Amino acid sequence: MSTIELRYTMFAYLPYQPDVNAQDLQGNTPLHFVVAPGRVELVRPVIDQGCNVRIANLEGRTSLHLAAMLYKTIPPIILPWLLEAHAKINVQDQAEQTPLHLATVAKQTEAIKVLGKHGARQDILDNDGKTVLMTAFPLNLFQDFEDIFQGSALSASLFKSIEAGAVESIGRLMEKMDRDSWPPMDESGYTPFYVAAKSGKPAGIARVIQKANEPGFDPQSILVPKAVPTALSIAANGGLDIVKAIMENVRPETRQKLLKQADHVGKPALFWWLHKQAVFSHLVDLGADMRTTGRDGNNLLHVAAEFSYKVKFVTEKIETILGLLVLKDMLGETNKDGRTPREVAERGRNPKKVEFLDAVMRRLDMLDSRE
């Protein structure tokens, strides 16, 4: 025992009241010093003398952090004693790690169970954005949480695993989740499908969908909620791979509903993919309806005329698949503001689009006159 440690621990036996909360240059109290080496005969006296179990050292660690991390090398009674003395069970150190984080990192399985039974939260994130469950998985400690899983922690860990593209972790976490209340939502109201689609990681969204197709889950849960962007529209920042991962893994009946589903502003998924021709063509090949309109009455040509999308590509696609008559009808359709696609382009001061649409209309009129 060091001189300073001996001096601190002897305070517990003095007839007068010393400062049992005194801290050394590293911020350690007498309690830190007696907990670390497991001096069980001194822990209780130091606590009884009034040492504050909540004081943290310069690393932000309390005596509970130490007891959790060193559980196998110290008498097991020390951890419950600290909890009985009202140590903060979810306190975070400088690395934002709780005692449960440290117990997990140190593979202290019994400490995990003790802390879990005392209500230690499993959804707190450390500096690396990891919950204890995410930390436990690569260490093969996931099974040690079997009897103490917390629903909120499973959800938080799932969302973070999806963002990280941790495919194996996604599957294991979903296995433990309550299927009757699936899907969970994050603070923004997004489900795992939306977070996976937004992450742009094809393997992640594929795994979520595959798992959600298993018995007990609702295979159409990718369609909810309806007050936010759809899984297809939110994937618009990705590319063909993410769209294929979605469409190839959902069930056929769900696929058709996804193609038709409008988002929170009333736009079908096809509208969001006008800027990426390969994805647009893929969705059309799967059965997306190019005659669809948004809540504002805009058809595909209105949208292409308003934004910096290629009107020529959309026009040719409609003509090739739907025919000239449909193309002419769509060019003449008005939105809720009473404007045709040409008038939308004109209002947007885009003379090239106006010129192109005029040329298309003249060509269609000539074909009509020949008939």
From TrEMBL:
<dbReference type="InterPro" id="IPR002110">
    <property type="entry name" value="Ankyrin_rpt"/>
</dbReference>
<keyword id="KW-0677">Repeat</keyword>
<feature type="repeat" description="ANK">
    <location>
        <begin position="26"/>
        <end position="58"/>
    </location>
</feature>
<feature type="repeat" description="ANK">
    <location>
        <begin position="95"/>
        <end position="127"/>
    </location>
</feature>
<dbReference type="InterPro" id="IPR036770">
    <property type="entry name" value="Ankyrin_rpt-contain_sf"/>
</dbReference>
<keyword id="KW-0040">ANK repeat</keyword>
<feature type="repeat" description="ANK">
    <location>
        <begin position="59"/>
        <end position="94"/>
    </location>
</feature>
<dbReference type="Pfam" id="PF12796">
    <property type="entry name" value="Ank_2"/>
</dbReference>
<protein>
    <submittedName>
        <fullName>Uncharacterized protein</fullName>
    </submittedName>
</protein>
